[in-house]
Amino acid sequence: MKAGRFFNGWTLLAAILVVIIITGGVVIGLKYGRSQPIEISLSPAPALEGKIYIGGEVHNPGIYPLYTGDSLEDVIGAAGGITDNADLSHIELIISEKGEVAALQKVNINTADAWLLAALPGIGDVRAQAIVAYRRENGPFRDVNELLKVAGIGNATLENIRDLITVGD
């Protein structure tokens, strides 16, 4: 009988120790296991609106409006999509720093197609065709001021596009 009592006492003691260890683990886990919630706040993305130049292997390179929420796909779509010759393994996107003025690519009035000339402010399809016809009849323009000889282009129109055009590269 002593052996049975010995095992009953040790069994009871072991059971009490197991309960104490489990209870202690639960208390410690509850006390130290709960971390404070982490608050993550993201500042809203800056609104990008304005104009963007799209060039390279797109169907209609030029300056297009950029609205908040526009994706790269939207911008390329505005330029008529990419050409069949486009190399999609190398795409470069250049965004100028805030306050930095990106140099615009000027339209060469000696080599530009009529659709590109028509995109210039105040030119349109009729004047663009007149520029191409003048160039065909008289050879390349030597100076941007020579545009004044084209029918329908006056001083106001020339001054409006002077910073957007060139006769050289």
Can you lay out the helices and strands and say which pair or pack?
Blueprint: H1 2-33, E1 50-54, E2 62-66, H2 72-78, E3 107-108, H3 114-118, H4 124-138, H5 155-161, E4 165-166
Parallel strand pairs: 3-4
Antiparallel strand pairs: 1-2
In summary, what is this structure?
By secondary structure, the chain is mostly helical.
Question: How would you describe this protein?
Answer:
The longest helix has 32 residues, at 2-33. The termini are far apart. The strands form two sheets. The protein has a two-stranded antiparallel sheet with strand order 1-2. Strands 3-4 form a two-stranded parallel ribbon. The protein is mostly helical. The protein has a domain at 107-166: Orthogonal Bundle (DNA polymerase, domain 1), CATH 1.10.150.320. 39% of the residues lie in helices and 8% in strands. The model has no long low-confidence stretch (mean pLDDT 78). 8% of the residues are buried. It is rod-shaped, with a radius of gyration of 37 Å. The protein has five helices and four strands.
| H-E string | HEEHEHHHE
In spatial order, strands of the major sheet run: 1-2
Class from helix and strand fractions: mainly alpha
Question: What's the helical proportion of residues?
Answer: 25-40%
What would you report as the Rg, rounded to the nearest angstrom?
Answer: 37 Å
Specify the number of helices: 5
CATH domain class name of the domain at 107-166:
Mainly Alpha
CATH architecture of the domain at 107-166: Orthogonal Bundle
Q: What is the subunit organization of this protein?
A: single chain
- At the fourth level of CATH, the homologous superfamily of the domain at 107-166 is Photosystem II 12 kDa extrinsic protein
Question: How would the global form be characterised?
Answer: rod-shaped
Q: Under CATH, the topology of the domain at 107-166 is which?
A: DNA polymerase, domain 1
> What is the CA-CA span between the terminal residues?
111 Å
Low-pLDDT sequence parts: none
Strand percentage: 5-15%
Number of strands: 4
